[in-house]
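From the pipeline queue, job 12 of 40. The input is one protein chain; the requested action is below.

Action: predict structure.
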Amino acid sequence: MHHACARMRAMRWLMITAACLAAFATADEYEFWEACEAGDTKEMENLLEAASDIDLDYPDEDGRTPLLLAALHDRAAAARFLLARGADAEAVGRWPGPPDGPLATAAALGHVATMDVLLEGGASANAATGPDGRTPLIAAAEAGNEKAVALLLSVGAAVDSKRADGATAACAAAAGGHGDVLRRLLDAGADVHVADTLSGESLLHYAARAPTADAVKVALAAGADFGRRSGVGVPTDVSEAYDEGQEPRREDLRGGLTPLMAAAASSSHEALDVLLAAAKRALGSDFPSYVDAVDASGRTALAWAAAAPVRSTACIELLYANEARDDSATVDGLSVLHLASQGNARAVAYFVDVKSFDVDQRALTEKRPTPLMLASKAGAVAAAKALLRRGADVDAAAADGATSLHAAAAAGQTAVARLLLKRGANALAQNAKGEFPSQSCPKTPRGRALKYSLSRAERRAWVRLEREFGGAEPPDAVAEDGVDSSVVEDLEDDSVVDLDERDEL
């Protein structure tokens, strides 16, 4: 909380500072900024002659210096003009403008002509001007601008310079799936075995998360280790053990993620396919152990694919086609169906319909929740609907007596609560403490609104019981004071849930 307040104070100070800077700008400076943006060097010269007090490094209201404006709009002539008159080649933009210096900005945008001018004017190819410590080379690699990368390398840019998190330009290129840029960097001597210092992810991990497999192919061809683990201080030579004919111990496999897991977690189907093919060629009979390797949480690549919040089963089907097993649970006792239920409705449908998973399968945890309970807690309406359509017990209780409606209420998940009630959930279900779902709601404005609406559902349920059996007394009504009426309307409006009826699952 303290840190959040500090950040808010800092943001307010920066906003005030920017406003003050703009407020003290002269009409001549405004015109000068416009001329720089347009690349009108004649107008720039006229303005300087008419007003000698114009500061060449003074930022506009968006924190952009004249030179930064020239870099942003690829105004090479304007940049040359400014540098010749003493503008700072390394001046970094101020908030809320671009946080990089002119050269890194031009490199990220592929403005090669302006880059040439900036380099001639003294801009350093290795200056870490960005807030994350990125150099112009890293900025160019991130954006996939091969010509900008080539230019920077030709003037001596350090190929393995690092951001604050330890990632290099090669990592940045790999993350974007820029295979051609990555190849150029590797040809220039970039380290293919590099790993960042924040997560311990290797260059191949970055490539595996990209939407295409181009960078994965380049990295593998350069000798990247497909068995390397992410994380600092965890086993990284799993593939070497395979190569030596050794079966890695299970505890050795409990490190970080392999590139295969990273691809599955990111739903990078193409990258996953390439990695599987490479591992199959290299490992032979040991290939299944690689596919079913687990990370520190006990997740396999299949588990990561199931947990990915996408409307696709492509990665899941590909892993099954490569003999992936689905009979293990995570350290938290969750199956692949439990993981899918928290956001991937199509995976839910696949596991139940194709792989015959029990729709009410219990997690191996103390409370033994069902997939529907986890979907309700996560607010995964589509997944909850997919489970209910396949016969999930809407009133199944966990070990503590809590139902899916309790789970939705405790998490403040209005849409899921509405769905559950629509599908017949018992508003009068009590957990082991004797609490109704309405008594599980958080003490927030939306939580109070949800509590009020659930209490109304309780009353209606009591009325039905009275009519059927007689003598029942409804619980006390919850006061509507301070309740967000829009949330109440959401809960009691059929259209809120019906919007998802377009999902055929």
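Job complete. The mean pLDDT is 84.
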